[in-house]
Amino acid sequence: MKLFYTELIKLKNTFAFWLTIMGALFMPLLLLSAYLLSTKEFVPAPGVNPWYEYLLRTFNGSCLFSTGFISLIIGLILNVEHKAHSWKHLFTLPVSRGKVYLVKLTFIFATIITFIVLYFVFAVSIGQFLGTGKPELKFSEFDIPNVYMFKFLLDFFVSIIPMVVIQYWISLRIENLVTSLGLGLLGLLVGLLFKNWPHIVYFPYAMPFQMWNYQLSKSFVSQNFFWINIAYTLLFLALSYHDFTRRFRG
Amino acid sequence: MQNTEELIIETSHVSFGFSKGQNALNDVNLQIPKGAIYGFLGPNGAGKTTTIRILLNLLKPSNGYVNLFGKRVTGTSNNLFSRIGSLIETPSLYEHLTGLDNLLITANIRNIPKSRVTEVLEIVGLSSYGGMHVKKYSLGMKQRLGLAIALLPSPDLLILDEPTNGLDPTGIIEIRELLLLLCKERGVTILISSHLLAEIEKLVSHVGILNQGKMLFQGSFKNLQQIREEKSIIEIDTDQNDRAINLLLENNHPVSQGKEFLEVKFLNICQLSAITSLLVIAGLAIYRMQLIESSLEQTFLSIINKTGQP
Ligand SMILES: Nc1ncnc2c1ncn2[C@@H]1O[C@H](COP(=O)(O)OP(=O)(O)OP(=O)(O)O)[C@@H](O)[C@H]1O
Ligand SMILES: [Mg+2]
Fold first, then answer.
1. What transmembrane ranges does the database entry give (chain A) (predicted)?
2. N or C: which end of chain A has fewer CB within 10 A?
């Protein structure tokens, strides 16, 4: 726990910290301005719950932008160590390398979860704000489809895990932030461009884009994506753990 | 019986190469007894930092092994490091944080109470700068903070790689006094690397000299001084140097013709008067009679240069 706390200290005054908050605000604010500027286009047909469309836009925004932000957050968190040349110091403290690896990865996941949760808290709050500010949008007349939202959150989180582990490894090994981020964005771009190619599910960076236009009926978990993700996660965890504890010189 | 030869650091036939076929270290055998202040000397690129990285388990030797506190260092001997404070090259500092936060990070990882943090800040003379961001520190202040981090665990062994890098003369003296105090009062064993013998000669009890990955000298500081004395000569010049040579040889003074003057190997101070009276009685006019002692620095350089040439 103390180790985890030190990670938090390291994040003080960093861009990574602000990005977690500002990045989470970015898409919801974009949606807000769209709904405010052209309110008429978003008025739902009678009897239709506007939350479904609104959430779908939020989901798609999440697929498209969050993945980039997440790569950047990972890169920035590891850059804190690279910039301080602190691996050599960390490795001479009475903690095992394995622990250093796991604490850092756990911290990164905690940051990413914070980011995603903030993103959805902001999005839902903005929807509710629109409900009172623009009654014609009918946000206040319907309930938020909670099941739909949580199902997406779960599936989306599962879909990014392999990518996060790979990006963690890359950012550990490549000190230059531009290079590690560039590789991540390249992977994401390929995943996005070829998202309709049947075999693309075997490409870890493509997973988040398989969630595009997410529907409840077409649940992600039921398909073999789930197993592919688990396999990739375990594989890259094992490889990067071995590399970090045995070969990494810092 | 007290074991005076307890070795805190011992390396046995340690070799290491960054690339195949080129050894940065070759058969290095360090022996650092308990309570010693060991000066680890060598020019740029000698392999000091590489040796220190191997001691701290940051690099694996391709050959040989390392013992710390009498225990073999392996991939999993992290608990040994709770007794060791170290500073390698430039200190690892998070520049976006304050000096205090930097110390707190290491203190937390090492499970050290917060009170110790203020203590070490005071020891290195940074008390009033604890709340300042490290990016605003001067080079010397960063070096002091690095030293404070090394001192945090009240270590039994301090490994310092050029700790006085960037310090002003007062700073250097302060650090020297601090290290002497730690050694005397707490029995801390200290390994300190440097390029300059002059910088650490007032501090060290033992010296190791490394060049091109090979140990050229290792022993107590007194040993080094003996070598220096053995290199001292008496320069002599007279009106009849040929006769002087014969006279000196007849009386068992090893003499040779130097570049300008005759040179006699210096043995002890009585030699001077003996030679003088010998030459005067023989009727020679003495133009010059001078004891030339080589400095420690020259001794150090001559040790390094012996292997410097291929
Ligand atoms: N990361 C590295 N990769 C390849 N070679 C290296 C690396 N680090 C050091 N070397 C080589 O190993 C040799 C020893 O370097 P080392 O840093 O140990 O010297 P040093 O005695 O600490 O020198 P200095 O006094 O300049 O700090 C040098 O020839 C150097 O070129
Ligand atoms: Mg060095």
1. 15-38, 58-80, 101-127, 147-170, 182-205, 225-244
2. N
Q: Which residues contact A161 (CB under 8 A, 6 or more apart)?
A: A229, A233
Rg (CA), chain B: 25
Q: Write out residues with Cβ below 6 Å of ligand 1.
A: B 18, 24, 42, 44-50, 195
Render pLDDT for B120-178 as a digit per residue (tens, 0 to 9): 999 999 999 999 999 999 998 999 999 999 999 999 999 999 998 888 888 888 889 99
pLDDT above 90: residue B9: yes
The residue ranges of every structural domain in chain A are 1-247
Confidence of residue A98 (pLDDT cuts 50, 70, 90): very high
Residues of A in contact with B111 (CB under 8 A): 2
Return d(Cα A213, Cα A57) in angstroms, integer.
Answer: 8
3-state secondary structure of B284: coil
Instruction: Give residue A211 CA to ligand 1 midpoint distance, Å.
Output: 50
Site to substitute for ligand 1 among B16, B26, B48, B52, most atoms within 8 A of C-beta: B48
pLDDT in tens, A121-149: 999 999 999 988 888 888 888 888 888 89
From chain A residues 55-84, the ones with a CB under 8 A of any chain B CB are: 80, 83-84
Adjacent-strand bridge partners of B192: B39, B160
Residue in B88, B81, B104 with CA at minimum distance from that of residue B155: B81
Ligand 1 centre to CA of A83 (Å) is 20
For the segment B277-300, what is each residue's pLDDT rounded down to a tens digit?
888 998 889 999 888 887 777 788
The reported pTM is 0.86
Q: In this structure, are strands B189-194 and B157-161 parallel, antiparallel, or unpaired?
A: parallel
The per-residue pLDDT for range A153-197, each reduced to its tens digit, is 988 999 999 999 999 999 999 999 999 999 999 999 998 888 888
A3 to chain B: closest CA residue: B109
Q: Would residue A182 be called left, alpha or beta, if left means φ above 0 and alpha means ψ between -120 and 50 degrees?
A: alpha
Q: A13 in contact with B at a CB cutoff of 8 Å?
A: yes
Interface test with A, best of B52, B78, B95, B103 (most A CBs within 10 A): B78
Any long-range contacts for A188-191 (C-beta under 8 Å, 24+ apart)? A188/A67, A188/A68, A188/A71, A188/A163
In angstroms, rounded to a whole number, what is the distance separating the alpha carbons of residues A20 and A25?
9
Q: Choose among A122, A151, A185: nearest CA to A52.
A: A151
What value of ipTM does the predicted structure carry? 0.87
Q: Which chain A residue shows the shortest CA-CA distance from B81?
A: A94
How many angstroms separate the alpha carbon of residue B212 from the centre of ligand 2? 13
CA distance B91 to chain A (A): 8
- Within an 8 Å CB–CB cutoff, is residue B279 touching chain A? no
Q: Which two tokens stand for residue A88?
A: 């050599």
Between CA A161 and CA A208 the distance in angstroms is 10
Give, using CA atoms, the residue closest to atom 30 of ligand 1.
B45
